[in-house]
Hints:
Elements: H1 4-11, H2 18-24, H3 30-36, E1 43-47, H4 55-58, E2 64-69, H5 72-81, E3 86-89, E4 102-108, H6 116-126, E5 127-140, H7 145-154, H8 158-164, E6 178-189, H9 190-198, H10 201-204, H11 208-225, E7 231-244
Parallel strand pairs: 1-2, 1-4, 2-3, 4-5
Antiparallel strand pairs: 5-7, 6-7
Amino acid sequence: MTDPHRQARMATSFGREAASYSKGRPDYPEAAIAHLVPSEARVVVDIGAGTGKLTASLLSPGRTVIAVEPDRVMLDALSSALPTVHSVSGTAEQTTLDDSVADVLTYGQAWHWVQPEPATAEAARVLQPGGRIGLVWNIRDESVPWVAALTGIMSASAAELFVARGGPRLRTHFGPLEHKAFDWERRLTSEQLVAMAASRSHVITAADAERTRILAGVQELADDVADSDGVIVLPYRTHVYRAHRL
């Protein structure tokens, strides 16, 4: 059974490793973004925006992008990196935005942390009629043996477990939820791989000895799989779920 207090601690832990999050977390493939957000969308709101990994991909000429994030440290990092984005302190359940202001709402690596019923109602309130909600996760491809070994060292994340168990459900306010996956590869250094591990909520909230053990294991694996130029090729599958407001 999930411990709700630990779940809450993990969900709000990321600001403690904002620098590692920016350095270690992957971006999103262009094909997934194009599927997530139609080119004609004029106002896009990224909820649970973190340091702006997904937010940066949403920028387009003539488009207004609003980032909603509850963690002040993460929001400050986003504002520094993306000064043209309007940043708002809020949550998926209470965005603080006006009614019907958005063409699209996006949630990158975020929906598994929300309370589904109030978050769905809030999304419907903020979206224009017919507007789109988009939920997206980057998940490592564990069919590759060394990637499976990496998960063995770090443990599966809340996001990975959520998607593996069937992903999101929207029971009210929205039409059918469509799902599409995009396979791609990320090239990164061993330093970035260790930073990715350090930015995971399970690792952030672990006891010091456990955290040290995990990061040392990731470093050892990274050294083993890096090529002669120090480059690691990490395969991902990006899962995109989208639906329209009724």
